[in-house]
Amino acid sequence: MAEDLNSIYKLLRKAYGKQGWWPIADLSAGKSEYGINAPRNESDIFEIAIGAILTQNVAWVNVEKALLSLKKKRLLDPSKMYKAKHDDIAQCIVPSGYYNQKTKKIKNFLSWFNNYGFSFEPVMSVKTAALRRELLDINGIGPETADSILLYGLRRKIFVVDAYTKRIYSRLGVVNINDSYEVVRDYFQKGTSGGVAKYNEYHALIVVHGKDVCKSKPLCSSCCLGSICPSFKSFN
Ligand code: SF4
After folding, report:
1. Predicted TM-score (pTM) above 0.70
2. How many CB atoms sit inside 10 A of residue 58's CB?
3. Of the residues 5, 9, 214, which should be mutated to test ligand 1's pocket, given the most ligand atoms within 8 Å of the CB?
4. Which segments of the chain have a pLDDT < 50?
């Protein structure tokens, strides 16, 4: 029987504790800072949006390097980045991989953001569904990236789905591994109580669980969901 999404959240939260996303790159410390209740201002929102693009298909440690490099070159600013040459951005984001493609995606995002005068204030007044459509219309912004920007940057109540979500919850018998992004998101939106803060934590907990325990080859014997997981036996 499929477990309730809120009970699973509680088990994950108990096992891993508060994750405190979204991390913001701290140039003086040379690493990301967690648990600072970001976004605290417009520049945090912008950094989250750029981080959401950079993290496509790559581990956060590489994104962190790219963000620190952009900060060092004083390029992590919307109007400066918009005017910057492709190669100057690409050079900074080499650690995040696919740097030419990602530079194009960042430029596309900046063209959209230019319509709002590089300010998130007018963006805030756009309703969530319309804003989501606008972000998805940007070439290179898929649903996971758009939803990360919406949830973590703009504090909209949108559940972020990723490959970890599908893997863990299909093993738990909650979703089907072949379900579309929207089907899984809809399931989580309807089945998860609470607001933005919980959605924020829940996705972060899914990432840590998928990365460290429910891997391709899962570590079921040390899993906090072992007692409720129908796949436990098949992996042991
Ligand atoms: S018991 Fe195994 S398959 Fe089930 S969630 Fe845990 S690690 Fe994944």
Report:
1. yes
2. 15
3. 214
4. 1
